[in-house]
Amino acid sequence: MPNPHDFHTPQPSYSKDELLKSSEGGYFGPGNAQLPAPPMLMMDRIAEISLDGGEFRKGHIVGELDIVPGHWFFDCHYRGDAMMPGSLGLDAMWQMVGYWLGWSGSPGKGRAIGVGELEVTGFVTPEARCVRYEVAMRMVRRGKLVLGIADGRVLADGVCVFMAKDMRVGLTKAVD
């Protein structure tokens, strides 16, 4: 597998255009981590990313999504009671853990493999302006198995609406 750092020099933040480029594949090298394409790309930017930040000092990533009333999920999730599905908040954080693993130099494609605990304390509605995803890496294993375990939370306009503990993302090697 190619080393992601042979294709990409890590940056401390990423724009929407850079995230879209990652969704095309190859950003971290062939067969390595990539983000999903819209509409499943659940962030407009990565505001912060580090190897040693976060609550556990093992790395962190902060993503943001600008909310507009016409977002696709508002029209199809509980018609007449528009809200962003909590599963999309969890998926966004899984996306970020996989991106962090590639960004930090591990080869392979990211796959969500589990979550320990979930707590929903509120909702993202069309009235919100910005959703912020904050993810702190708890543990990273590199070797034959690449595994990232992280805790995260989703904030709507600064209010926590969703928390997840022990989100697990593994990187798989492409099979020829």
- Full CATH superfamily name: Hotdog Thioesterase
How many beta-strand segments? 7
At CATH level 2, the architecture is: Roll
By CATH reckoning, the class would read: Alpha Beta
N- to C-terminal distance: 11 Å
Series of H and E elements:
HEEHHEEEEE
On the 0 to 100 scale, the average pLDDT is 93
Classify the helix fraction into a percent range: 10-25%
Remind me, CATH topology? Answer: Thiol Ester Dehydrase, Chain A
Domains (count): 1
Question: Strand content of the residues, in percent?
Answer: 25-35%
What is the count of DSSP helices, taking H or I runs of 4+ residues?
3
Which segments are poorly predicted (pLDDT under 50) over 5 or more consecutive residues? none
Radius of gyration over alpha carbons?
16 Å
Question: Any overview of this molecule?
Answer:
The chain is globular. The protein has 176 residues and is of the alpha+beta class. It has three helices and seven strands, in the order αββααβββββ. The protein starts with 15 loop residues before the first helix and ends with a strand. The mean pLDDT is 93. Strand 5 and strand 6 form a beta hairpin. It has a single domain, classed as Thiol Ester Dehydrase, Chain A (Roll). The longest helix is centred in the middle third of the chain and has 18 residues. Strands 1, 2, 3, 4, 5, 6 and 7 form a seven-stranded antiparallel beta sheet that branches.
